[in-house]
Predict the 3D structure of the following.
Amino acid sequence: MSRETGPSCKTCRRAGEKMFLKGDKCVSDKCVLPRRMEKEGPGRGGQGGRRRGGRKLSAYSVQLREKQRVKSIYGIGETQFHNYFRRAAKERNTAEALLNLLEARLDNVVYRLGFAASRSQARQLVTHGHITINGRKTDVASYLVRAGNSVGVKGEKGLKAVRTMLANRDLPAAAWLNLDKDNARGTVLRLPTREDTQGMTANMQLIVELYSK
């Protein structure tokens, strides 16, 4: 039997897939989905977007579920997500622009650099004042980084936590970021491109279709 360890696990159960909201803890054998979900695939409706009775989910339901899933992955609310969409809608490729805005959030950058095991842990580092941008403390998790920004760690407690995390993780930073592991510092080389986000499972086009109705 799988183990309930908190709200994040319940979110993954509702989605019917592991979204690694708790980072490395989600890799544990104790963190598993019910067998029915593993067989059926993403979503409580089962494979192919079907409900238990065999009825296929509507296009709206599929789009709504994808939006809820992406919101859960990045840990943001409806109002903020809608604001990101409105900003992305001004660009030529709305889906790509929306994903890039989410990736450019400071808490996500801290996570992508490997300073934290999950986005929620990264958000905590930021809001507790342990992260700096170009040497200045920035405690706003939604801060959007720019190319050339330097992301550092402030305070003995924060440095200790980040260095321990970096020492125990072998995963490289995202391609659009540069990590100075010895000094626990990262640099935003550029903003992410379509190639940088191709491996991600988020289907942003479904969300664009949802908001365009």
The chain has a mean pLDDT of 82. The domain at 7-92+201-211 is CATH 1.10.1050.10 (Ribosomal Protein S4 Delta 41; Chain A, domain 1).
